[in-house]
Amino acid sequence: MREQMSRQWNGVRVAAGCAARGIVLIELVNVMLRVLVLAHLLILPTSFLQFSSVGLADESQVAMNRKRIQFKSSADGSDQEAMLIVPALDAKSHEPVPLVVSLHSWSADLEQRNALEKLVHSRGWIYLFPNFRGSNRTPQACASTLAQQDILDSIAWVVGQQSVDEDRIYLAGSSGGGHMTMLMTARHPELWRAASAWVGISDLVTWHAHHRNQKYGKMIEQCCGGAPGASPEVDAQYRNRSPITYFSQARDVAIDISAGLKDGHEGSVPISHSINAFNLIAKARGDRPVTNAELSQLSRPGKLERAKPGDEGFDATFNRKYFLRRRSGNARLTIFDGGHEGIATATIAWFEKHP
């Protein structure tokens, strides 16, 4: 009897040990899952600030042929890089296809990924993601003449290697990429069939004031040689690297300028940067700009007290409501229900409206 009870007790202890190990294993798995989720959240902002995939299904089951390319800078002779994704059939014998030039965000480089590349690839278009001197923390980056030329040189390299429809070259970016999209649109308006700038910085002086003694303020100083007012040379750097200096030259470009209503409150770039850029186009074309009162009402953030017809609505390509929508010539301004983000589905829809 004792022997039988002893065997039963041993069995219970073995079972309990197994159960305990099972519990430990479950807890270990839970910890690992929490770590993975945390890691994802820490990584997310960099890619999210580029382009999110609101309402986006995976449109392409074909593996993307992503490759790193190298080309010579025509400005300083240095070797520069970009990421290139080409359609499955990319030989010279095939019909020319559109080229989408996508620009990385402020603190990122060519290793950044975003939802736009899948949408471009699914349409059989070419996707180009230049480095343009990487993160904006050196004088060579941040809309320098070198960075601008890198974008132009990368396009020239692709045009020389692939069958590109040179009448359908598109440009897009958000945050720091929106800043560079606006600047390149204004400096080279003849090059782009259409452009899409999200939550971009249009004026480095006012953005520096918004982030003085903080991360972005210090990064701007690293690029421009100091704070605004430090010297005439430094002030010239702020002017030369700010889209607002040139943006009236983009008055004929089909550019979509978009910003989330909450940006500047829950994000890093106030909506005034997008609105002020649009206003330069409106004034250059003799159209009515967004008024200071309207800007103030939206910047609370809030709604317009007296919205005009077409100002408010829902855009299915954004999958969002919008609280201000204005047009001037080929340009469009949208202040949508969101924050510091770009929306890939709306970007590709804008490009498809301009074949």
Helix vs. strand class: alpha/beta
The fourth-level CATH homologous superfamily of the largest domain is Alpha/Beta hydrolase fold, catalytic domain
Morphology: globular
End-to-end gap? 89 Å
Helix content: 25-40%
Describe this structure in words.
This protein has 355 residues and is α/β, with parallel strands linked by helices. A hairpin with a 2-residue loop joins strand 9 and strand 10. It has a ten-stranded mixed β-sheet, with helices on both faces. The N terminus is likely disordered. The longest helix is centred in the N-terminal third of the chain and has 49 residues. It is built from ten helices and ten strands. It is 39% helix and 19% strand. The chain folds into three domains: 47 residues; 264 residues, Alpha/Beta hydrolase fold, catalytic domain (Rossmann fold); 37 residues, no CATH class.
SSE diagram, text form:
Blueprint: H1 2-50, E1 65-72, E2 79-86, E3 97-103, H2 116-122, E4 126-130, H3 145-161, E5 164-174, H4 176-187, E6 194-198, H5 204-210, H6 215-224, H7 232-240, E7 255-260, H8 272-284, H9 292-298, E8 313-315, E9 320-328, E10 331-336, H10 344-352
Parallel strand pairs: 3-4, 3-5, 5-6, 6-7, 7-10
Antiparallel strand pairs: 1-2, 2-4, 8-9, 9-10
Helix pairs in contact: 5-6
